[in-house]
Amino acid sequence: MKIGILLTDHVMDELKAKHGDMDDFYKYIFNKVDPTIKLEIFDVVEGIYPNNINDCEGYLITGSRFSVYDQINWITRLKEFVIELDLLKKPLIGVCFGHQLIAQVLGGEAKVAESGWTVGNQTYDLIEDIPWLKEDITLFTLLHSHKDQVSKLPDKATLIASTEKVPIAMFGVGDHIFSHQGHPEFKPEYVHDVATIRKEVLGDEVYLAAVMFVGKDMTPAIVNEVQKDSPAYISGIKKNDRIISIENKKVNSILDVSKLIMMSTSEFIDFKVSRFENELIFKVNRPLT
Known about the structure:
This protein is of the alpha/beta class.
């Protein structure tokens, strides 16, 4: 199988030495899933497309620093290509910018989110079953980094999953389009470094939420960073503390942290942490970070 990666951006120059470029992210995750899958990279910003739309069995549109409503020639051309792919029912995946662009092309809408920037792990609540997903999974997380989001679902699309901050986080169209706001190709360390560079743009609250935990959804909730004078810092939580319960409910992983915080209605949230061989309880004022 050959998949065409429609590349819409590159990693910041100052981060390439450490993390590689955007196409490297996709080469890594596809190789982990199935080493027999071949990828062909098309830098659509530079106007590079396949000679024939059938050169690849399917396509993936990556994330980008640009917005789908920007009046730029390469974005207009990409929208036209998406229309072609949809008409042919060619398999297509949208990631972040790609997710928003597919929605807009098919009659939905994407715009600056009223909630502002969303960065870090976000918990997805499945609304529709995904045939290839394990049956016992109803919640999972993906890393996010965006200020725009889909605000209106295309009429012919089916909503698959939502998050607290992103109601239209994942959707599908027929059997040929699967689209989501999150970044399965990102690693936490990369999101941390991007957030650090964009700290002034993101604001303290969003930045702190992005960098507090390290790892993915099913890893232990170990605190990665606590900023001075934040509510977590003031309460006494420290770097490398492991969150073991929130509001007396057991925390098995980072996934549980976001879920239990969402469930809490308290002004102060009780956190039990493990520090060395001791268990300590802290009352953290909202916001968590």
